[in-house]
Amino acid sequence: MPLPHHNPGPLRFGANYVPSSGWFYGWLDQPADAARRDFEDLAGIGLDHVRVFPVWPWIQPNRTLIRRRGIDDLLAVIDAAAEFGLSVAVDLLQGHLSSFDFLPSWVLTWHRRGLFTDPDVRAGLVTYVDTLTREIVTRDNVFAVTLGNEVNNLYPANPTTFGDSRSWAAELLGTARAAAPGLLTLHSLYDATWYDPEHPFHPADNVDLGDLTTVHSWVFNGVSAIDGPLGPATVTHADYLVELAAATSPDPSRPVWLQEVGAPRPDVPEPDAPAFVSRLLEAVTPNPALWGVTWWCSHDLDRSLADFPEREYDLGLFTVDHRPKPAARELAAAVKERRDRAARRRALVCDVDLRAEPERRAEVAPGSAFHAAWVRLRQDGPLAIVTAARAADPADLAARGIDTVLDRH
């Protein structure tokens, strides 16, 4: 299911799949049986896809052992999604999930070696990515593979550099692409790569590696502290990240997938959640760069499970007993409405070129002078971001639908 290299038309709407029974530990049992009921929930509100997270060390417990049962369980979940008309994106290296890291013993303790740098680890990962990708491409409803869920969360336990993190991702993306040329191959990073000057994953990797750009928008990164749960900075943060990605890509037609976004407590208190979801979607869905929105997450986390951060328990569109929550109703309304994309927009010039000056990332982070100016101007309607060099390129501006360029100085 290859992606045309231009805006693909109607937005995709989906959910990151967290099983209602047993969280991701459900992969240790019979995941497809439980998944059918969960997928019925998601199809019932009009969603068209799910992103699924098989847990890496449970499939590859030894560097030279890939469990057939683990692969079969993954394929069964994919088939269950197809029963409800859902297409599937598979994350490969889990990796990092909801504040826990799941790494196989062959990269830990007495066998500790760098995930991104050790040649034996990388060889094992190539085998894993190749094997899983060749298996899942046999299912017609699979459309994408992502290397893993926010793999940069595995730093600093696995130190790396710009060069090593980039070559690691490029090698594994190349492996997946060779195994399944028809699938989208994607790289997933949390927002330190955009905002933290010291982070060893380059912001350009977001837009140079993989077939489209993915962004993860979480307002507990400090955004909600600026103006509260329903303030303009908070409800437009997803749109801001999409614009940063579009401004950083050398290809003005490269789509951006809002691959994770949610309404976390206490940053978004329960009474404010419906308005937060509605305003967030109202802000981001008209963005012409946007490929789709995938909500985090499908189902709440059962409170019988211990030691998770408090916000992780209530992020679902549905409760563990399958009751739709306000976020589900607001997302369903957006699916039905299918808002038009913004045809023409203004753009704010950004003095920072993240491709060339990653050490200046703090200057575009939430709360920076640039971010504050963008939020203020964004209240008057859709607002793109453009670098100074590209602001002088009429063809680039036209490709992104920009007809007016503003300077904050």
Folded structure, characterized:
The chain is of the alpha/beta class and 409 residues long. It has one domain: TIM Barrel. The protein has helices spanning 31-44, 56-59, 68-83, 119-136, 162-179, 192-195, 203-208, 224-227, 232-235, 237-248, 273-284, 326-337, 369-378, 388-391, 394-399, and strands at 12-16, 49-52, 87-93, 96-97, 100-101, 142-148, 184-186, 213-217, 256-261, 290-295, 345-350, 383-387, 402-406. Strands 7-6-3-2-1-10-9-8 form an 8-stranded parallel beta sheet. Helix 11 (273-284) packs parallel to helix 12. It is globular, with a radius of gyration of 20 Å. The termini are far apart. Residues 1-7 have low confidence and may be disordered.
Shape: globular
Strand content: 15-25%
Provide the CATH architecture. Alpha-Beta Barrel
The total count of helices amounts to 15
Separation, N- and C-terminal Cα atoms:
45 Å
Q: Provide the domain count.
A: 1
Kindly report the average pLDDT value. Answer: 93
CATH topology: TIM Barrel
CATH class: Alpha Beta
- What order do the strands of the largest sheet run in, or round the barrel if closed? 7-6-3-2-1-10-9-8
Give me the CATH superfamily. Answer: Glycosidases
Classify the secondary structure makeup into a structural class: alpha/beta
GO molecular function: hydrolase activity
InterPro entries: GH
Protein name: Glycosyl hydrolase
Keywords: Hydrolase
